[in-house]
Amino acid sequence: MDSSDEIKILKKVRSLVYGRYNWSGIAIAIQMFGASLIATVLQLVALMLIFVTSMGNGSSDFIGMTASLNEYNMFISGIAYITCNLTAAFLCMKLSKTGSLKQMFRKPEKSFGALDILLSVLAILGLSTLDSLFMNGLSFIFGSSDEALGAIMTGGVFSDKLWVQVGTLAYIAVLGPITEEILVRGACLPMCSHISTRFGIVASALLFGIMHGNITQFFNAFVLGLALAYVTVKSRSIIPAMLMHVANNSLAVVQMFMTNYMSEEKYQIVDNITTAVLVVLGISSLVFLVIRKGKVDDRDDAIKVNIPAPAEYIEMAKTPSNNLTAKTFFSSWAFWVVTGYAVFNSIIVIIFGNALMQG
């Protein structure tokens, strides 16, 4: 093989690898843009129904009608995001020819038993709580973002309409986490791991953070994404990650109810005790889990995927070591599209939060 043939092979391999990474970004783009579009359409329909109903009752307070839409926002968002999570996962896995989602739904490896799952759940709760403390320390920067997210999320949770409340809680605590795991750990993690599993863990966690579309949740989602991907790789299944994600979001729901129904003084006492317990127990569980399962090895922990090019060509193109990982991933146009959208959305959330705080 002469040098010109080798150059052609290297370019072809990098193009194929780039395409696989790009599909992971496209999956997130479908979720973010698709869900925003569907949610906007559904919100307009809901607003029209509220308007027609109010006019029928003789009311003409359009501002009040618009404000009442907040009650349905999370319920509507749930419909949009569940739909797009599943669509993006199945569509992009198929079109990228990475493999099948079925392999990620299998039972965890026998070596990853009930104790490991328990440690994983405790670890995610501890990490999430610790990260919340970190974000509270930066509240002078992200406080308005927290305020906006709180207003958006709690509308449906405390709705007087039982169907809205149940639907909102089901999305936040169960259906949202499960479908997000199908998308990110089920689809994006394999699409990012065809060269290096360790890089796939970091890349999928980064996409998970970006997917949330606001600065407040980005840090939390990235950190949790690393843990969720680690457990997925070690168990060779997304089921433990689903349980971890459901536990994490369920804790957030419990905290919402505590904040709403407890006095501020009593809530602070309970919250301080819970925080201390979860941080100590969770971080200890994480350390114990890593000791039990070990670090991620690209060979032993490789996710079964259809590699985009012959193995010998990939090995040839992997020099330098980051040539087919970070360098190629961060040149993906889809990655920068979703990153740009997340930055834009973060600014909107901060502006909305500032308006609420000043109001």
Describe the structure.
This protein is mostly helical and 359 residues long. The protein has one domain. Helices cover 80% and strands 0% of the residues. Helix 1 crosses helix 2 and helix 7 packs antiparallel against helix 8. It is globular. The termini are far apart. The model has no long low-confidence stretch (mean pLDDT 88).
What is the structure about, briefly put?
The protein is mainly α and 359 residues long. It has helices at residues 3-56, 62-68, 70-96, 114-137, 139-157, 162-192, 197-211, 215-235, 239-261, 264-293, 311-317, 326-329, 333-358.
**How many separate domains make up the residues?**
1
Number of helices: 13
What's the total number of strands? 0
**Percent range of helical residues:** over 70%
User: Could you name the ranges where pLDDT drops below 50 across 5 or more consecutive residues?
Assistant: none
- Structural class by helix and strand composition: mainly alpha
**DSSP strand (E) fraction?**
under 5%
What is the residue-mean pLDDT, rounded to a whole number? 88
Distance between the termini: 70 Å
Principal-axis shape: globular
Order of helical and strand elements: HHHHHHHHHHHHH
Oligomer: single chain
- The rounded Rg comes to 22 Å
User: Can you summarize the main beta sheet?
Assistant: none
